[in-house]
Protein 1
Amino acid sequence: MDFLPIVILLVTIALGVPVALAIGAAGLSFFVFSGSMPPELFIQRMVSVTHSFPLLAVPLFVMTGVVMNYAGITRRMMGFAEAMTGHWVGGLAQVNVLLSTLLGGVAGSANADAAMQAKVLVPEMSRRGYDRAFSSVVTASSSIISVIIPPGIGLILYGFMGDVSIGKLFLAGIVPGILLCAAMMGLVAFMAHRLKLKPALARRTTWEERATALRGASLALMVPVGIVVGIRFGFFTPTEAGAMAALFAAIVGVLYRELKVRHAWTILQQTTQATAIVLLVICAANGFGYYMTWEQIPSAVAAAMLALTENPYLLLLIINLLLILAGMFIEGSAALILLTPILVPVISKVGVDPVHFGIVMVLNLTIAGVTPPLGTLMFTTCAITGVSIADFIKAALPFYALLFAMLLVLTFVPALSLWLPNLSFN
């Protein structure tokens, strides 16, 4: 078996080469040095993956999130979240968590959510006396919910790479996402009392005020509901749901009289930039994946892991540990793209449902985004808020404990993920 591409991949990542270039260089080395493959085939493999209809959902949902920011939807959602939880102790931190859950149901990007809230909420939290490190940790940690609540982009990538129903994955993420939100709000409440934080609002909002805030955000809140219902009843595919979400967000922006024609070019620029990063990794990984298939690496890994144990629970524990280690050194989307084709056949052979495993894998690799040494959510948030990595990690310890505990719960209680898709698709 030719291990040169794997060696090149590990060395280039260790040297700090961008992940897409590292994967591309590793894949290209196989075609150049194998002697049996024309190098032109590598380019064909890279380009062929862009012809996939399901992958079109990625730029469409990215565009939805960008349009929301210009359409006034994000601000109205924040107003609704504040009306519901702003009177609690540590109310702004609770708003932070709840807003991540609401935004996850529309845009599905953890990095975008973390960047937005780091710019908008963390400065306000600092003005209210919140420790900046604590505020940064809440922002980064709560953004993890965004990838579990449908339509998470990570779920789309997993479904595409593992040939798993994206519609089922969307439904599977609803209950875990809500549970993760509730657990994090509970931890924030505990930490807020411990740190003696103040509420965001001086008094409890009346139900009339909450109803007003809900009306302001109601059009935006209909987007995730429409996506799930539309996919469930066959009105449109997950990809078409992305187009509908982007269109609906634009219509809402026009109705709110905040989305202008002059915003179109900026929206297209930001969408293109965010999409290009993900798709470049996918294209490079497709060329690298051809090498792994040719060398039968997935089969070898599956045989090696099944030789250790065929107990599904023990195997899931081992895989979780491997994913945590991988996620600490490889960006989450890249790790997801590389490892999904290898691990899905393994878990399928021991009877683990690929839909359940998709939730576990996406959550695992996204948690790695807030852990050292290469957590992208950690670096994104700290770069915007100006908090040192050391202070972030120290403040994040209780959140690490909660996130890994929730990961174990979702791993070993598959009914939490499978109840809704099994109910809906039966």
Protein 2
Amino acid sequence: MNSAKTILVIGTYDTKDPELNFVCDSIRKLGGDVVSMDVSVLGDPSEPTDVSKHDVAAAAGKTIQDAIDSGDENHAMQIMAEGAAKLTAKLYAEGKIHGMLALGGTMGTDLALDCARALPIGVPKYVVSTIAFSALIPPERLSADIQMILWAGGLYGLNDICMATLSQAAGAVYGAAQAVRAPDPDRPVIGMVSFGSSALHYMMHLRQPLIDRGFSLAVFHGTGMGGMAMESLADQGYFACVLELAVAEIGNLMVGSIVNAGADRMTAAGRRGIPIIAAPGFGDMIDFATWQPVPERFRDRPYHAHNRLLASAALTGEERGELAHEVANRLKQSKGPVKFILPTEGIHAWDTEGMPAHDPDALAVMVDAYKREMNDPIDLTVMDCHINDKAFSEKVLEIIDGWIADGTLKTNATPSGG
């Protein structure tokens, strides 16, 4: 039998007291313990919570009266969000909680996202929200392994639909706390962004050699949420190195596509001084939702509907140059070493002769732009190959081995060579 786990239950106990107490009781019926945290401002719970609203405000260096006197509900809840996030991190660091569950509408969800980001990966973090999966939530606010559950019928008061959702949430967070296998911090992790193996082959070429060198490789799908997760973990200093080998999320952000990972994409590793190897994979395509109309400016471009969710259209040579400039600007802010590998013969499987995205003239413009933009402090390597050629992956391994040799990267295994 697993030992009992303790779940932090966060919410505004003045307005959602019955719902929150129902969740707490559901967790206790499963054999768990609860730490309740009240983040309300104006009212009071029916019974005292383990962490009061006064405790939460104090953790932010304020009082509840400060929040009230602000005269603005947004400012007041930001005070509570700051305090709640700090206390969430403190409770976990002290070993007092094993997961969190928060309830809310827009206000409660806003606060809950900060609390979730205060916990490391592997700690169950569930948010039951009336706006779960909504476009109102920007990707950069999401923690890497957050779980969201749509709170159907949950805006006000308990009902059968609401209780069905809340009881599932209680079971989900408690079951996760019992079952989770925490990451092993003894094996350094390399984060890589890619697309599927039919389009980009380097993850297949690199995975086993990196494992043989003593690393764990985590590959993130570069379709917005994947890049968000990688960025979140990089911000926590989770990676020994990142392989930013596909840049479509930056291009998507530039043209306003919803398939992006937030405005801070490709910055966290640099801020932390984490070594970066980058390349322009998929830097000639823009992704957008298949279920939305094709944006007018892309209607005369080569177009590929990948499935009913995701579609892509080609960038012009000029637009690829603008993307090169933006990628370079982000990488040049890095405090650690940055290597950029530029394959001149193509940057994904669709960018080969006979395929719909093959545009040699635009590719040439893109290559010239990266040659121009990737200058000091970025170390540029130009290779006359395709990104899917083994030569490209071998160059990545050569750089990794050099960093192992000079102590930039630490590993638990002896490098095996490229």
Protein 3
Amino acid sequence: MISLYCFREPLSPLFSQTLIDMAGLRGAVLAIAVGTSLFCSWTLGAAVVAEDSGLNMLKCTITSRCQLFDNKTQEKWNCQNIWNTFYASIPAVSDDVCDLPSNQYSEYIRQTQQAIPKDKTLLWSGRDVLGTMIKNYTESCHVINLEYTFTGCLLDDLKWCNQAGELEKCDDCKVFSKSSVGAFWNQASLEFAGEASGLVSILLSGKRKGGAFIETSILATVELPTLRTSHVTKVQILLLDKTETEQCGKGTVKTLQEKLKEYGFEENCEDNVNEIYGRLCEERRREGDIPGFYHCSSANLERATFFGTFLVMLYTYINNFCNQKI
């Protein structure tokens, strides 16, 4: 367990002695420092180390999100163990961070995986265009995309590289799928698509540069080949932002339709925005909420990320203050 010390002594005896001896500003500072350290240990399962703010931020954010899940569902996740597993999955300093094996994050994914209900799988492609639409559609239409599972929610929009927190080493990776972050999303996408059953929906945007369906995307290279015809009964394409060249039966959307048929799937395509948000979402809303997923909303993610960021800033400030001679 990683622990934060303002001083070189264990926290418990120091805390007791501080309560007895504290006086004036010096005592107040000591009490705040020790109290905050204890609060972090109690709230997050382990406090953070102030020397490496990058990994601190990552740990506090992941653990905060984990606690949010723990408080809102019947599942009881061991957030400290999950962080330890994820940290052990991050490449060591000596590893080639641009050439990671496909099973790099197997243990983390196994430990955090959730069963996806039938007919609820949502695949998508084009975050640069869809943006928050992915989360809005997931929440309003009661479907599940990878970022809404426990596995994906903990790491959504986060960046990491190696166990030393050297993010710049991953910036030069030429193949994203082999980088530290890319290897995770590739493997998580593979597992997610492999568990899909019943109706599978694919959300795309006709305004995406290069076309709604990119044949080098994770959707095309990882998820579609992994869908199982024995489990998936139908694939539904939902196209937002229809254009003259990108619509059902035209452009790259037509390419996707043809590829699905080649894989042996029955498919249908919807490119009317009102139809997508009206009839389709209303049908799914009547089915009710899906326990264990919807607390991973965009608003809750922002709160958890803010909480983690705030704690790191606070601990770093207190640690630096306590290391000065008072």
Protein 4
Amino acid sequence: MTTSDRLDTTSDRPKTASEKPDAAAVDVVTADGKVVRKATIAGAVGSFVEWYDYGIYGLLVTYLALNIMGEAEAGGLFLTNVGFLISFIARPFGSVICGYLGDRIGRKSLLATLLVLISGATAAIGLIPSHSVIGVAAPALLVLLRVLQGFSAGGEVAGAMSFVGEYAPDARRNYMMSFIAVGSFIALMFGSAFSAILITTLGNDAMTSWAWRVPFLLAVPLGYVGFYIRRQLEETPHFVALRAQNTVARNPLREALTSKRHLKAIALTIFLPALNGPGYYLLFVYMPTYLKTSLGEHNFSMLRALTVTAFSLVAIAVCIPLMARLSDRIGRKPVLTISAVATAVVAYPMFRLITTGEFGLACIGTIVLAIAFSGHAAVVHTVLAEMFPTSVRYSAYSIGFSISTIIFGGSAPLLMTELIKSTGSNLVPAFAAIITALITLVTIAFLRETKGRPLVAR
């Protein structure tokens, strides 16, 4: 097979005998509908647990600043956001190690183990003594646990998406995979609602004193449920086919990083999700802190800020499966393009509404932004999974997406906090959304349509 043949993995032309390795997917034993549904549920539940664990940190960052850093003003918030960034720096290490193991030994057991790791690290954050008790050891422990969270998250995203994608039928792959994204947003919604209930029933003083720990400790039972569900499933049909044909990559990392075809796809994996940073981490994870600290507590208490975020989370959770169905009908590229353009167009006017300080207008602004972003959230991970063959999918996808998240996502809260302070403009997040939407839009031009295509084996 020629290099050009290998690059054209989405062609409609019949495969010749010399291209038999790329057609290995024809030997995959397709799972029945019941098994596919179980795999989808397992992926969604695992995503819920992972992003609850990861997102609760961003939702409660001001309480962490008070207890772990000793203050809630700029210095404490800065240090806490550094903890947010450090976890993202740890992600590539998790992506490299977990990607290698996932492509060598399979997806199932590794994903169950990662869920235990991230849940344990999250619960341990809730047990850290305050700064007043152990001093500088408190932020040191927080950083260590954030590294563990980042490591596990680095291997989780690509693994979970690959797992469900390798079970899903070609014609409905995006729809089935979209529930992993839905799980992540429902997790944030649950975290927002749970935190709001605690603030309402116990009061802000109790939250500051001890109740902030409760959402972190809830990771223990949630993690157990997710682990149990994932352990009940078998390995994916596509990986089983690789193993049966004795074509599992001996060194998937080397294969991914020495192939021009895979390096090109990894580059696309870095830049295509650019919008994911402002879309996910600013609009949902960082938004409560943004509303409370940038617009003032006289406009948005933490309870009101969490409520605004909850409305936008409901909107995107409803829209994602609809956008995924549309993608399975008309293609990945059109939906991604519409979402990027819509986000770029509405970002500035919607953030103008948000910065008025009016609760109702802020709800409208975040809901419109969520709807605009939903097409990207629904489709991007399916495209990333479809760009790589099964033999290196976990490794290559993990590496590219982790690098993307460091550049466009992990630095977002820290960067926004500092830019807002230095410029005096609360509209900085709007410009971040516009710039990253344009980066995503340019990258889409280099993609090949993957709708309805069989997953390539090698």
